[in-house]
Structures are given as structure tokens and as C-alpha cells.
Amino acid sequence: MFGTGEGYNSQSPDGVTAAYRAIRQWLADSPAELMAARRAQAELFFRRIGITFAVYGDAQATERLIPFDIVPRIITRPEWQRLEKGLKQRVAALNMFLADVYGAQEILKAGIVPAELVLMNPAYCLHMVGRQPPGGVWVHIAGIDLVRTGPDEFFVLEDNARTPSGVSYMLENREVMLKLVPDLFDQVKVAPVETYPEKLLETLASVSPRKQRGSHPTCVLLTPGQYNSAFYEHSFLADKLGIELVEGNDLFVRDDIVFMRTTEGPQRVDVIYRRLDDDFIDPLVFNPGSMLGVPGLMSAYAAGNVTLANAVGTGIADDKAIYSYMPDIVRFYTGEEPILANVPTWRCREPEALMYVLDHLPELVVKEVDGSGGYGMLVGPHASKTTIAAFAAKLKANPEKFIAQPTLALSTCPTATDGGIAARHVDLRPFVLTGSDGVRIVPGGLTRVAMTAGSLVVNSSQGGGTKDTWIIDG
Question: SUPFAM superfamilies annotated for this entry (predicted)?
């Protein structure tokens, strides 16, 4: 039932780890028709809630549900404590890196990271050079993608420091599981994730530029609108946080102060949780054709009168070529060895690395340095000769746009499929919140699962699903 992935223990009499034993018994006690009914009920819950994920170019984008797997993923408390320590270290280093590359640039002067890789990068925002965001925090919300390859082996696959998404699914997955299998929660002590909205609001309030005694900062969530792929999450989070969901035309700037239009007149805004990319945030500074942003917003930001979370310019930390230097970045700023390792990475911009990658394309995963959502990537072992040849041509033409990684033996989790319980590959995205008053992490995250047998692609935009993540004592 569990294959040889997570939950499997060859030394155990029943072949199952202690952490998964209650899950195994629950599955054994659940007839196939009951599991099918629960899966159908879960889908009905999500349809009623309206939880969707739009895929650009898909005629059915507004109708798509992310597949949900009813079998939870288990991570033990000791495993989580190590992950949590590593996540805090990594996000602290990301914040120090961003403050440095837009400031003194010591890491570039030291030759740890090539200067041209940062300064010539399209994601490097010249408007932020010499500036510090209010509170000194750049990455308020980080989503760090982790993969597991063995019992004690976790690797960071990607850093998401710009506008990480998926936390609404983490919260909704838990709510649905509590409705569907309350008895299982009585048997297994699961750490709560429901406090995330409260922790996020505390984080946003901590970086408000106005901190007068007795005053309560006004926070809003800025969305591109209903046609954005993550709009459901935007409206969900605004509701959970108890803040206004706004679009660009709901805000205006006067005397370098941001105001929100309300029925009672203008209301000053202190913190904007923005789910809008840099290019669209202020047409007076970035894309002049943008109808999504707020004219003058960058002026108010530069004056220190409003906080943007995440800060403008954090996209440089999402770059997969920068990712390849993260172990050195962690050492440079913290003086410590990285607790969480990177996946071994070849930078195709380097001639020797490019030669190796071209010679081993059928074995590797190749990604665009600024790509996301599983788009623009090659999974060599699953690609045709024609696709590999086409990718080789892309690499030769623009090697600086790609990195390559080995095809890892990603861990699998027991997953409910039409054919019964089967092993499927998974990753994990925990969410790290950083404010001026410290770091907050709820115990868990979004587990994404490749619903197709043998597939390594877990992205929702590529047909992947999600499952609840349980941190338990054990």
C-alpha cells in the first residue's frame, strides 16, 4: 500500500513507520466505496467554497479545481524542528542578501556572487538601490519549496520571495479534513495551521511605518483582479485577515501618502500586502501602460509612508541562478553552514557546465532561471528525443537563461487514486513570515502531489494536486 516512500519502514513488522501507523489503520478500515464517497465530498466542499486555480490560455480556467488528496502527509515533530531551523536561517540570509545588493553590495565586491548576475538581471530593481523598506524587512512572506529524497534528507528546490502563493490551499485542506475525518484527528495529535492569518496580520502590522501608541495600522491586500490565476487566494486571505481587498483604482496617492477610497471618505493606508508584480505596481515608474497599479505609489514608498509586502525588488531572490549560490550566501551573511542543502545545480551560463548539461540532457531537469509554475522546463527522463533536441538548441542560443539539476529520487506519499491507494511524488512549501518583531512559521505547509503515476511535476498549473500536511509528535 505504501510502496517504499514516506511511511514505509522495512524494519517494521508491518512495513509502516510509527508516524503513519494510524493512517494505515484508517485506510484499512475504510472500504473503497467509503474512500470514493469522501473524495467526492471533498470535491463538493471545494466547489461550494469556490476554491479554484486559473490556468492562462485555458478556456476552462475559471472552472478548474485543484485535485485534492484525502490521505494526509505526515512529518514528525523532530523532522519539522530541523526544517523550521533551516527555514529561518535561509530566509534571514535572503533578507540580508537583498539589503546588501541594493545597498553596500559587499557580497558582489567579495566575488561570492558574480556582479553581472545581479546587476544585469531583469529582476534587479534600480529604483530600490540605496533604499531600505520600512522596518528593514524585504521578504515578509516567503514560500520555500522543499523536496525529500530519504528519511533525513530534505533539499530546497526553489525560493519564492516575490509573491508566493498557495497558503489558502494549506488552510482549506485542513478545514476540509477536519470535516471529513474528525475521528482521525482524535487519534492523531496534529499541530494547528489555523493561526496563519493571525500571524500574517501581526507580521504586516509590525512593519507599519506609523507606530503611534494606540493606533492600529490600516492594511489592505492589493490584487490584479478576478482574472489573475490566484484571485481566489487573494479574496480568501483578505477575508481571513479582516482587511480590504483592493484593486489599483481603489487607492490613490496624495502628498506621498496612500489613501483608500471608502464610502466615508479617504482612509490612509499603512501596509499593502501586494499580489501584483513590480512591473505593474506604479505606471509612473514601471510599465506606463499598467491599469493595475497605483500612480505615485513608489513615491509614497520611497518617502517611507507605506510598506509594501513583499518589498519591491525581491524578484532577484527568485532567480534560479541566484538560487544556485544560496549555500555561499548563507555562509557569507550568517557565518554558518546551511542547515538545508540546495539541489546540486549546473549554471548553464558557465561553459563547462553547459557542455555537461548538453551531454546529459536525457538525465536532467532543465529550468528557466526566471520561470515558475512548471512552465518552460525539461524533464529529461520523460522527454522525447525531439523535445530534447529542441531544448538543446535553446540552451546553445541562450545558456544564461537556464540552470540544470539532476533528476532526484523524490519521496512518495500514499495517495488516493481511482485505482486505490498508490505512491505519488510530493514536495512541500512551508510559509515563513518575517516582521520587524521576529519570524513566524506555522507547523506545516502546502504539500503538492503529482497525481500522475511516475510524474515529478507537482505544480497546480501542470495538473498537480494538494494534500494536507500533518506535523505530529513522533
Answer: Glutathione synthetase ATP-binding domain-like
CATH at residue 390: 3.30.1490.270
Tell me the pLDDT of the chain (474 aa) as tens digits.
Answer: 555 567 656 556 565 788 888 888 888 888 888 888 888 898 888 888 766 665 545 444 445 678 899 999 999 999 999 999 999 999 999 999 999 999 999 999 999 999 999 999 999 999 999 999 988 999 999 999 999 987 778 999 999 999 999 999 999 999 999 999 999 998 899 999 999 999 999 999 999 998 755 568 999 999 999 888 889 899 999 999 999 999 999 999 999 999 999 999 999 999 999 999 999 999 999 999 999 999 999 999 999 999 999 999 999 999 999 999 999 999 999 999 999 999 999 999 999 999 999 999 999 999 988 876 556 788 888 889 999 999 999 999 999 999 999 987 778 888 888 888 888 889 999 999 999 999 999 999 999 998 888 777 776 666 688 999 999 986
- Point out the domain boundary residue: 406, 421, 455: 406
Exposed, middle or buried: residue 369 (CB in 10 Å: 0-12, 13-18, 19+)?
buried
Residue 254 lies in a domain: no
Domain count, the chain: 2
The span from the CA of 252 to the CA of 238, in Å, is 19
| Nearest residue to 295 (alpha-carbon basis) of 352, 325, 339, 251 | 251
Q: Which residue range is the domain that position 312 belongs to?
A: 18-209+306-343+408-472
How many CA atoms are closer than 13 Å to the CA of 352, on its beta-carbon side?
Answer: 1
Phi/psi for 317 (5° steps) reads: -80, -10
Are 84 and 471 in contact by the 8 Å Cβ rule? The answer is no
